[in-house]
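REDY-like protein HapK
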Amino acid sequence: MPVRFLISTLKPGVDPAEYEAWVRERDYELVRTLPNYVSYRVHRITGPIQGFESAGWQYLERIEVKSLEQHDRDLASPAGVALREELYGRFLDRSRNIYFAAETIE
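Tokens:
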């Protein structure tokens, strides 16, 4: 199944504990209602990224879905748009995000 990864950084001044509470209480809750999602977890990066220590990235999201096309439709839905407005309005520096998709080698 396809997996989308997001590497992200908080906006200056954002409290990591506040963001992480939002992930648990709002982000994870919405994803649990969407049947396309197989697995979704946000990981805090602990320590420097080897080979790119100055990157400053703080979080890695692993989003396993049945369909990337459906994932994009979910993000474009009213609930998805509202969630992303909260995410980027309050917490993440969107200009520093890195996205990519991958597939597991079976």
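The mean pLDDT is 94.
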